[in-house]
Amino acid sequence: TSFVDFQQVSLAYDDSGNAIEDISLSIGEGEFVAFVGPSGCGKSTFMKLCTGLHAPTGGSVKVDGVEVGGPLKICGMAFQSANLLPWRTTLDNVLLPLEIVKPYRSQFRQRRAEFVGWARDLLRTVGLEGYEDQYPWQLSGGMQQRASICRALIHRPRLLMLDEPFGALDAFTREELWCVLRDLWEAQRFTVVLVTHDLREAAFLADTVYVMSRRPGRIIERREIDLPRP
Ligand code: ADP
Ligand code: ADP
């Protein structure tokens, strides 16, 4: 069954043409899919349609069977820049969604100790044990990105949206984090939509890769990846 469902979706920002052109596709719950293509091909626009930050100008976008009609609250997000709050420690950055998102926010005071336990568990799985009380500027770029992935997952979202999350990292760190992400996904099986311009990254991480064309907004290929993984 389909978790993210696009039916003949188009989006035009202005009269210069469509940024997304007649896309129909379906992503099952627990799948890991990647969208790959050159800059300007419509990857971010696709992402914003999935998360309800843009409404389609044509067609329909459904998530979990419901037409998306505004910013989606069931997803976690991470971007190229980690965007950690500089005045908060690693731990407090990771806790942030629990202070904001229902149903956690109303319980935050009473359950803080438990939530801190979740954050510590998650930070340990990404290799950040011992850095809980450091501030973002005390962490390397890779560590900041690990923390931002923890923040995206702390409220157990069913959908994880990743927009070039490793784009700013060196090749070693990047491939290390691919493994971290893949391990988290294998353990928890949230649905992942990754957009990237890195075909290797897409093929390493995702089980299904959609290739978008340079001419904006079109999918030119859908490929199932069946790689032996370390
Ligand atoms: P990508 O993320 O793959 O780089 P985008 O989704 O950002 O691609 O952009 C797809 C197309 O839509 C591009 O031609 C871009 O110039 C155009 N575009 C993106 N955002 C806007 C906007 N806010 N207003 C007008 N055009 C936009
Ligand atoms: P329990 O009822 O035993 O807490 P859960 O399925 O809620 O069972 O959680 C199992 C474990 O997963 C908990 O011990 C907790 O550490 C962790 N956990 C639960 N919810 C979250 C969450 N939203 N974010 C991170 N970790 C969580």
Explain how this protein is built.
By secondary structure, the protein is α/β, with parallel strands linked by helices. The protein has helices spanning 43-50, 90-100, 108-125, 141-153, 171-188, 199-205; strands at residues 2-14, 17-28, 32-36, 58-63, 66-67, 75-79, 159-163, 191-196, 208-212, 219-224. The chain has a six-stranded mixed beta sheet with strand order 6-7-8-3-9-10, with helices on both faces. Strands 2-1-4-5 form a four-stranded antiparallel beta sheet. A hairpin with a 2-residue loop joins strand 1 (2-14) and strand 2 (17-28). Helix 2 (90-100) crosses helix 3 and helix 2 runs parallel beside helix 4 (141-153). It starts with a strand and ends in a 6-residue tail after the last strand. One adenosine-5'-diphosphate (ADP) binds at residues 13-14, 19, 37, 39-45, 216.
Blueprint of the fold:
Elements lengths: L1 E13 L2 E12 L3 E5 L6 H8 L7 E6 L2 E2 L7 E5 L10 H11 L7 H18 L15 H13 L5 E5 L7 H18 L2 E6 L2 H7 L2 E5 L6 E6 L6
Parallel strand pairs: 3-8, 3-9, 6-7, 7-8
Antiparallel strand pairs: 1-2, 1-4, 4-5, 9-10
Helix pairs in contact: 2-3, 2-4
Bound molecules: adenosine-5'-diphosphate (2 copies).
Task: Calculate the mean pLDDT score and round it.
Answer: 94
Strand order of the largest sheet: 6-7-8-3-9-10
Helix and strand run: EEEHEEEHHHEHEHEE
Could you say which overall geometry the principal axes of the C-alpha atoms support? Answer: globular
Report how far the terminal alpha carbons are from each other.
29 Å
Beta-strand portion reads: 25-35%
Bound molecules: adenosine-5'-diphosphate
Number of distinct beta strands: 10
* Helix run count: 6
How much helicity do the residues have?
25-40%
What structural category do the secondary elements indicate? alpha/beta
> Could you describe the largest sheet, including whether it forms a barrel?
6 strands, mixed
Poorly predicted runs of 5 or more residues: none
* Radius of gyration based on Cα positions: 18 Å
